[in-house]
Design goal:
Elements: E1 5-10, H1 16-28, E2 44-45, H2 49-56, H3 65-80, E3 87-91, E4 97-98, E5 101-102, E6 109-116, H4 119-130, H5 134-140, E7 147-148, E8 157-158, H6 162-170, E9 177-181, H7 182-187, H8 189-199, H9 206-215, H10 218-228, H11 249-252, H12 255-271
Parallel strand pairs: 1-3, 1-6, 2-3, 6-9
Antiparallel strand pairs: 4-5, 7-8
Length: 276
């Protein structure tokens, strides 16, 4: 079994989609932006219900979490069965074991890219995406049992609290893990996206890089969403690409919620430069 999966991992609303759309444009190397709804062609998801039903070879109740977890190794083996050198796979799962099943097994893993974002900004975007109040989102992203429940499109995703998610993906591993901060991607996209290209072993062409950065700019993605919609937008939110900025928490997150987030995630926030 080939170790070909490169995980594109993040807590929800941390920049995973942006990175995947950049890669779609870099790989395509076209003179026009890749449509945002084609981003899935570059990196498949690891929780797509259709894939679990295919390996189940029969009816599958997605609310049966244990059954879906039993099928996960088969889904991942199916991904690497194409014998490709690299299979990019998007995940919001933590790098943990759930009910005895390793969610990110090393035997299929080549490497990983982990994107993290200031949780004070992430939680605002999380609230919009999932149709929650900021208070509800602060509670959820700090809860040890936080998970995305199953539906017709995706099986359960096990995330846990933000701090533990970050720790799980940035801990020592037997394969390389590239860690990128969303804020650095905003401030210096050339350096960050060049690291991403090189991590995947692709040749680095600066003209091609600059074009892919332009074609995946927030302005371009927002305008595309206005024209054609975006398949990854949740039913609870008006827009997927809402602002794309940093430090929104300074004006939009109430002080009492800032205090709660810092109390719950202080150590990891300090480690990654998110405490002033």
């Amino acid at each position: 079994m080939k170790r070909s999966i490169v995980w594109m991992a993040s807590y929800p609303k941390s920049g995973n989609t942006w990175a995947r759309i950049f890669l779609a444009n870099y790989i395509a190397n076209a003179r026009e932006p890749v449509p945002i709804n084609n981003a899935h062609m570059v990196a498949m998801g690891d929780s797509i219900t259709k894939m679990y039903r295919m390996v189940a070879r029969g009816p599958l109740d997605v609310t049966d979490i244990d059954r879906c977890l039993q099928l996960r190794p088969l889904v991942l083996r199916g991904i690497v069965a194409n014998n490709a050198d690299i299979n990019l796979v998007k995940t919001h799962n933590a790098r943990v074991t759930a009910r005895g099943v390793p969610l990110i097994p090393p035997e299929v893993t080549r490497s990983a890219i982990y994107i993290l974002r200031n949780p004070l900004d992430m939680v605002l975007s999380y609230a919009r995406h999932y149709g929650m109040t900021p208070e509800e989102a602060v509670h959820v992203v700090s809860h040890p049992d936080n998970a995305n429940p199953p539906d017709e499109e995706t099986v359960t995703q096990f995330m846990g609290p933000w701090s533990e998610h970050v720790r799980s993906w940035t801990a020592k591993a037997e394969y390389p893990i590239l860690v990128l901060r969303y804020e650095d991607m905003l401030a210096d996209p050339r350096t960050c996206f060049a690291k991403l290209v090189q991590h995947l072993g692709m040749p680095l062409d600066m003209e091609r890089l600059d074009r892919a950065i332009l074609f995946s700019s927030f302005k371009e993605l927002s305008e595309q969403e206005k024209r054609q919609g975006f398949v990854e937008k949740s039913a609870e939110s008006e827009r997927f690409f809402a602002k794309g900025q940093k430090d929104q928490w300074k004006t939009d997150l109430p002080a009492k919620l800032v205090k709660k987030m810092k109390h719950a995630h202080r150590k990891v926030m300090r480690q990654y430069g998110y405490l002033e």
